[in-house]
Amino acid sequence: MDILEWLKVLLLGIVEGVTEWLPISSTGHMILIEELIHLNVSDEFMEMFRVVIQLGAILAVVVLYFGKLWPFTTPSKGWIKKDTWLLWFKVLAAVLPAAIIGLPFDDKLDAMFYNYQTVAVTLIVYGVLFIILENRNKGKNPRVKTFSQLSFSMAFFIGAFQVLALIPGTSRSGATILGAMLLGLSRPLAAEFSFFLGIPVMFGASLLKLVKFGFAFTGTEIAILLVGMVTAFVISILAIRFLMGYIRRNDFKVFGYYRIILGILVLTYFILLG
Fold it and tell me: Is there a contact between 28 and 261 (Cβ–Cβ < 8 Å)?
């Protein structure tokens, strides 16, 4: 591959790293960016690449939050971190709705809705919902500020909101953060739980795509995957740190406005193109 193709891989990794964690839809941005640049690979490899580079993004969460996520401690403290085990059980409870609905219907939903019309509409709709929710919550104190206050039923219902992200353009982080805030979680807690919820979901999705594609990669294909994942990893660390710092001082409305503007631009671009 020439240098231009590698620059395309880097750009796709950057887009994935930024948009996976900000509630602005990584799929929506990928559809748009792939209209502007075309990586010189097969359609089957590209479909798998979009999902597998998420491994780099999710590893950024593991690295940044390792202290909160690692469930074991020193022998003097009894080996087990009970609060961390409880957190993981809540994450698993939240994964159930997406696992039950997503596994059988993921490919069918992609075939039906992986298009610019759906992405544009969902970008706008959820952008409006973010603005409405933030206006409704203005001046109110969140009821749930720590993971110990997060109940299993709340975790399950947040996971139910994640099912909405099966529709392209919704944003997995956007759907789960909206659901969490509707249930009374603080913005930082909603964002962190969304990050943690992505670990089993994205690892599982990547594994399924790899199994479906097969493991007979060429040397170039392996290099493309590694460059994409490493880029997504580095950019994800920066994006997560930015988001957590931003929402401790601000609300999510700016992301709502961004989604609305992007949705209008997507519609306009494809209508003029057609």
Answer: no
